[in-house]
Specification:
The structure holds two protein chains of two kinds. Chain A is 43% helix and 13% strand. Chain A is an alpha/beta fold. Chain A has four domains: 70 residues, Glutaredoxin (3-Layer(aba) Sandwich), CATH 3.40.30; 221 residues, 3-Layer(aba) Sandwich (Rossmann fold), CATH 3.40.50; 80 residues, Ubiquitin-like (UB roll) (Roll), CATH 3.10.20.600; 88 residues, NADH-ubiquinone oxidoreductase 51kDa subunit, iron-sulphur binding domain (de novo design (two linked rop proteins)). A six-stranded mixed beta sheet of chain A has the order 5-11-10-14-12-13. Chain A has a four-stranded mixed beta sheet with strand order 2-1-3-4. In chain A, 58% of the residues are buried. Chain B has two domains: 80 residues, Ubiquitin-like (UB roll) (Roll); 144 residues, 2-Layer Sandwich (Alpha-Beta Plaits). The longest helix of chain B is centred in the middle third of the chain and has 15 residues. Classes of the chains: A alpha/beta, B alpha+beta. Chains A and B meet through α1, α4, α20, α21 and α22 of A and α2, α4 and β7 of B. Bound molecules: flavin mononucleotide, iron/sulfur cluster (3 copies) and FE2/S2 (inorganic) cluster. The site of one iron/sulfur cluster has 15 residues of chain A, from α21 and α23.
């Protein structure tokens, strides 16, 4: 972690942040020499070059392509992408079609990105119109709340008028009372680490700093998950409201949403809301005539899954390489530009809003203390009713899959729940699980963001592990040794198995997995062993012919 | 100082007092049981903790006989009543496996290397008893041309282990931003400025990078890190550092 770069970049500040400056420059038709930018801010040319070269979308090899097919786990399992790729190649040329990891269309697949927009499902049938630049009619995801009380999907905060009314109410509230509500609700972070949200806000409100920041982590990169996308596009005011109240509580006057570039519609929706709220003085200087000011901006991710990890996300905004930093210090005391910062997931912020509006007891009365309230669950296209659902914590998974999801369209053998780092749960284990963070962990899985990717019966598990290792090799930040080297060596083992040039050395593979799990700095390469170990445990027999025991 | 104010933590079962300069478990352990008890590769006491190599991992329990957790000692704070285990079988295996991974992308030509017998990687690997790896035809970054364009500095990235010490020394000690890691993941590598030759870069020849580099990936024309070169050369380089 470079204090020097953080401080120098802090002088530029958030509004005009170095990351934005740098990426806009690269994506510009006539980019400036980075030496000029470096000089302007007393930074090294190497600083900008080092950061730029980190991001997939900023690389020349990416920019010379025109269309990108989704290579996320859900589209891979659906088997829709080979044909899609061929079609696009025949229209655009063989070297013009690249890949992107998960466009958040896991409920319909056939997903691809073209000219700043995402397409999926039946859209490819209109490829000629798309290439002509015509706007085509697209299907939306299905969403529905099955919760006792809806905190995330109701329409209590869907207009600027409602926003104003609620804001007026909370501007008058005691900050301690707001924190107490969140603590009482038992809301825990929905981004993966599960830290109690009330406590995070409380720590940050007590941290000393002449400036503080609120960051909304909207880098949802998990394949199978489109719940943050749902909130950003269909409930943007809930997310923004959560950020504003957080700013009020911790004493911050500036926040940013870091939204992945793979979600153009989310960026558009949030942008529209920010502009509208600014016009109405519901964001900006002296909100509604009070002495509270809060400004909001957007950072657009440039193709790096690791930017979802909070320290990498902060590094990214600062224009440093998006490598994971050591903790402590934690962002609540030393975050963006070394200032106290709350980083919260999209769903956490929306849930905080829902709790403040509906009351903490309603939230805490659902589920249990450690897995409280409601959770968005995403079901992929293998279900008869694919979509995003708000569900009570504690609900049996069997019920979610069979009743809400309506069962499966074809035979499936397992599910990867919680993104690429989440566990692979065999079909028969679903009967023994409830929607509960701790329960998943205690059985060797991970609920994470509660996305579900179905693995069909005939999908070879050797190939699935290859996909996982390939993902972590591609997306590893490269900082820690077991992560950088381990992911790549794992990928090579399965490359060789796929090509039948060598069998998988099981003993070495097991040692590698333990090394990554115990040794890694963060949960990217450190948690990819979870699903791989699950597969080896439950589906080892299927892979016997690809393995050798000793080595 | 009154006795109840003293804070104690345990290293392999024995109690030791925590003092103000023990800013990490690593510093605590080193000060009582010696430099070599816990190996390190990316750590340099003059640089901020970085946590990349993970060979400094130790096991920590919050109470006697409590459940243990593996943590990197260089960036984990030492706390009262912690029970720190520095080298049980699990830890040795973890360290061996990590160093083995490093060797999958290393030339292992110690005999002809400038820093033979004065190399941190060699020491750590020797202490762990690792001299080879078990991976089948791993892709390597071998064959990067040596950069001899600089008047004083030398770069031989075939031997680089991506510990980032040079980048941090250039930034934290020299206050320059000449060096950076570029790319990402397995393809990340050290470079200068905007992929310049070392000699054409903005380097001010302070030598801080060579001084901290644990291998011979960055060294200097005086071969000041060579165990075989006489003292004179080393002093000469030291002069150069203090001159900048
Ligand atoms: C590899 C990795 C990827 C992550 N990706 C995300 C993400 O896409 N969105 C997110 O909110 N949190 C993500 N996290 C978790 C964040 O680091 C952080 O814990 C979270 O944003 C905190 O918000 P919360 O307390 O509201 O959950 C990721 C963590 C890791 C280790
Ligand atoms: S585990 Fe992977 S992503 Fe995380 S710090 Fe290590 S190399 Fe980077
Ligand atoms: S010698 Fe040059 S590259 Fe090395 S630390 Fe000094 S200024 Fe930086
Ligand atoms: S050149 Fe030396 S100090 Fe720099 S990363 Fe490589 S091995 Fe580490
Ligand atoms: S010395 Fe601790 S991770 Fe390298």
């Amino acid at each position: 972690m470079s204090k020097n770069i953080s401080n120098l970049s802090g002088r530029i500040g958030l509004k005009d942040n170095l990351f934005k400056k740098m990426s806009e420059n690269v994506l510009n038709n006539s980019p400036r020499d980075i030496k000029e930018i470096a000089k302007e801010y007393n930074l090294g040319v190497s600083t900008i070059h080092g950061a730029e070269s980190f991001y997939e979308f900023l690389r020349p090899s990416h920019r010379e392509k025109k269309a990108f097919v989704c290579n996320g786990s859900a589209c891979m399992c659906a088997g829709t992408q080979d044909k899609l790729k061929e079609t696009l190649k025949s229209k655009l040329g063989n070297d013009k079609v690249g890949e992107m990891f998960c466009l958040g269309h896991c409920y319909e697949n056939h997903a691809f990105h073209y000219d700043g927009e995402n397409y999926a499902g039946k859209d490819i049938e209109n490829i000629d119109q798309i290439l002509n630049g015509e706007v085509i009619k697209q299907e939306k995801f299905f969403s529905k709340s099955y919760a006792t009380t809806s905190f995330l999907m109701d329409d209590k905060l869907s207009t600027a008028e409602q926003f104003k009314e609620q804001l007026n109410k909370f501007l008058k509230k005691d900050k301690k009372e707001i924190v107490k509500s969140l603590l009482d609700s038992n809301l825990t972070g929905r981004g993966g680490a599960g830290f109690p949200t009330g406590m995070k806000w409380d720590f940050c409100s007590k941290a000393k700093g002449d400036k503080k920041y609120v960051i909304c982590n909207a880098d949802e990169g998990d394949s199978g998950a489109f719940s943050d996308r749902y909130l950003l596009e269909d409930q943007p005011l809930k997310v923004i409201f959560g950020m504003v109240i957080c700013g009020l509580v911790i004493g911050s006057d500036e926040g940013v949403l870091y939204i992945r570039g793979e979600y153009p519609k989310s960026i558009e929706a949030i942008n529209g809301c920010i502009n509208e709220l600014k016009k109405l003085n519901l964001l900006g200087e002296n909100i509604l005539g009070t002495d509270f000011s809060f400004d909001l901006g957007i950072c657009i991710g440039q193709g790096a899954y690791i930017c979802g990890e909070e320290t990498a996300l902060i590094a990214s905004i600062e224009g440093r390489r998006a490598e994971v930093d050591v903790r402590p210090p934690f962002p609540v005391t030393e975050g963006l530009y070394k200032k106290p910062t709350v980083v919260n997931n999209v769903e956490t912020l929306a849930a905080a809003t829902g709790i403040l509006i509906n009351g903490a007891e309603k939230f805490s009365s659902i589920g249990n203390k450690k897995s409280a309230g409601t959770k968005l669950v995403c079901l992929d296209s293998f279900f008869n009713n694919p979509g995003v659902y708000e569900i009570n914590m504690g609900t049996p998974m069997k019920k979610i899959f069979n009743e809400i999801g309506g069962g499966y369209k074809e035979s499936v053998k397992a599910f990867q729940i919680g993104g690429p780092l989440g566990g692979v749960v065999p079909l028969k284990e679903i009967d023994n699980l409830n929607l509960d963070f701790q329960e998943f962990s205690s059985k060797g899985f991970m609920l994470g963001h509660a996305s579900v990717v179905s693995i069909p019966k005939d999908f070879p598990m050797t190939e699935y592990i290859h996909h996982l290792f390939e993902f972590s090799a591609e997306e590893s930040c490269g900082k820690c040794f077991p992560g950088r080297l381990g992911s790549y060596r794992g990928k090579e083992m399965f490359d060789q198995a796929k090509k039948k040039t060598a069998k998988i050395p099981l003993k070495l593979l097991n040692e590698l997995l333990v090394t990554m799990q115990k040794g890694c700095l963060c949960a990217l390469c450190g948690a990819i062993p979870t699903p791989i170990m699950n597969i080896l445990k439950y589906f080892g027999d299927e892979m016997k012919s690809d393995m050798v025991k000793d080595n | 100082m009154s006795s109840e104010k003293r804070k104690i933590a345990y290293i392999d079962g024995k109690p030791y007092e925590i003092s103000a300069n023990h800013t990490s478990i690593l510093k605590f352990v080193k000060s009582y049981v010696g430099e070599k008890k816990v190996p390190t590769l990316c750590d340099d006491p003059n640089l901020a903790p970085y946590g990349a190599c993970r060979v400094c991992s130790v096991e920590v329990a919050l109470q006697k006989d409590g459940p243990t957790k593996v943590v990197a000692s260089c960036h984990t704070p030492v706390a009262e009543n912690q029970h720190i285990f520095t080298s049980n079988e699990n830890l040795q295996n973890l360290r061996k496996n990590i160093v083995e991974l490093v060797l999958t992308d290393h030339p292992m030509e110690c005999g002809t290397c400038e820093v033979n017998n004065n190399c941190e990687l060699q020491d750590v690997a020797n202490d762990l008893g690792i001299s080879d790896h078990r991976y089948n035809s791993p892709k390597q970054h071998k064959g990067i041309p040596k950069d001899t364009s600089h008047d004083y500095m030398r770069m031989n990235l075939d031997n680089c282990i991506n510990c980032g010490r040079c980048v941090r020394a250039c930034d934290e000690i020299q206050g320059s931003f000449v060096l950076t890691m570029s790319g990402r993941g397995f393809e990340s590598r050290i470079t200068t400025d905007n992929d310049m030759m070392f000699g054409d870069s903005s380097c001010v020849s302070c030598g801080a990078c060579a001084h901290t580099c644990p291998t011979d990936a960055i060294s200097d024309v005086f071969q000041s890190k060579s165990a075989a070169v006489d003292k004179k050369g080393k002093n000469y380089m030291f002069l150069l550092w203090s001159w900048v």
